[in-house]
Known about the structure:
Layout: H1 3-18, H2 21-30, E1 35-39, H3 45-54, E2 58-62, H4 66-73, H5 84-92, E3 96-99, E4 110-113, H6 128-140, E5 146-149, H7 157-167, E6 178-181, E7 200-204, H8 207-220, E8 224-227, H9 230-261, H10 265-272, H11 296-305, H12 312-338, E9 347-351, H13 366-377, E10 380-384, E11 390-393, E12 401-404, H14 410-415, E13 418-421, H15 430-436, E14 440-442, H16 453-456, E15 459-461
Parallel strand pairs: 1-2, 1-4, 2-3, 4-5, 5-6, 7-8, 9-10, 9-13, 13-14, 14-15
Antiparallel strand pairs: 6-7, 11-12
Helix pairs in contact: 1-2, 2-8, 6-7, 9-11, 9-12, 12-13
Amino acid sequence: MNVSDTIKTSQAMADAVTGSPKAILLDKIATCRAKVAIIGLGYVGLPLAVCVAKIGYAVFGIDLNQERVSQINLGISYINDVANDELLPLVENDKIRAYTDFAKIAEADVVIICVPTPLTKNRDPDTSYIQKTVTEIAKYLRPGQLITLESTTYPGTTEEIMLTVLEKTGLKVGEDFFLAHSPERVDPGNQRYTTHNTNKVVGGLTPACNEVAAAFYRKSILDIITVSSPSCAEMVKVFENTFRAVNIALVNELALLCDKMGLNVWEVLDAAATKPFGMMSFYPGPGVGGHCIPIDPFYLTWKAREYNFHTRFIELAGEINSFMPQFVREKIMRALGRRGKPLYGSNILMLGMAYKRDLSDWRESPGVHLLEILLADGEDVHFCDPYVGAVSIKERTPDEMTVASEPLTKEILEAADCVVVITDHSDFDYDFIVTHSPVVVDTRNACRAVLEQHQRDKIVLL
Length: 462
Ligand SMILES: NC(=O)c1ccc[n+]([C@@H]2O[C@H](COP(=O)([O-])OP(=O)(O)OC[C@H]3O[C@@H](n4cnc5c(N)ncnc54)[C@H](O)[C@@H]3O)[C@@H](O)[C@H]2O)c1
């Protein structure tokens, strides 16, 4: 044991004797007697609730959405990554219970925030969900609580928004209560990396905050990496998402150039991927979607302005990625033109509306943007997505409208003038699709296994 470990051990013993808030909380965490409140039970909050409850903590889920709360209390999951037979036993054994009432925070030892962080209409950060949540937490804050923010946000949020409100209670961070940012890294649909085996970054306000937060997360997550501050942890997360946004934009730009040069971008990328070092594969597509990649980098852009700094890579990546639905429209127009048909009035069938394969999430989906563009053009456009029941369209229409998914049949394919693959769901039978379609614009190279030449002749790649 080195000198620093000896000092830490002596401090822990002293804390235990005095029964400091930190010592009491660490003991509850170590023995799984800590009660955990998770605020916001969506794609991030619900899998986390299951992960934490599985190791023995009692979890209170808090969400404003009454329907979600009722479903959880019946053991019914609305998130792809959480199976009912995983959730139900935890509900039946009183390990997870959901509420709409924030008063449950008073009983919790650990409070985790997983609320949305969207952009406003003017594409500035909308931190109102975090603000409302921390105002509720402040009402019930008491010594011996750990509060962690998992929502993705700009560097500085935990300190500037959360700490300011929580310290108004008169309680002191690092002594009475503990505050940290620990960004969620969930990858919806990923079977290999779950909440449990995806390592997690923790940045506490003080060394004591880091110690308590790391102790808590270490119980349920395999590897914890502590950093020196919440701002560092916040920057780690926005950087991770910016890294993806920029690299996807780079291959999208390559796709635009390959189109002009008559090259097959997929062949180029497959060959480049054979390099055993210094290469990482990203693929082009109809644009980016979901709650992270199209949004989070702009949290950083907004914050950078405070420092008179212009985040050029982020802006450029946003510009290229958001142009992609327009490019797909152009591809459709050209594919129709080759068959002597105009775009206007054509019957266009989109396959997939979710932003990602095998998911039901269509938030910010490029498919929705393309649907809006085509509807505004006056096209007769439909979509089939086995995961998405319906989507609502707000942009480019005078009133919000709902477009429902249709079943994928031979008849609907044959009735279309052009079929467009937007999401490469594994449930789709691409042989069947190409066989019954007049022409297929494939934005994901999903039809790569369709090999017969007369079928390939119908496929137009991005
Ligand atoms: N979805 C992802 O893949 C992903 C991955 C990593 C990080 N994140 C981040 O995690 C955060 C949550 O994302 P999500 O995808 O889980 O969102 P979500 O929309 O799926 O879930 C958020 C939940 O919070 C609830 N809610 C909203 N306001 C609330 C309030 N004031 N009090 C209580 N509940 C409230 C909503 O009803 C909803 O159920 C965001 O910051 C997001 O950027 C998301």
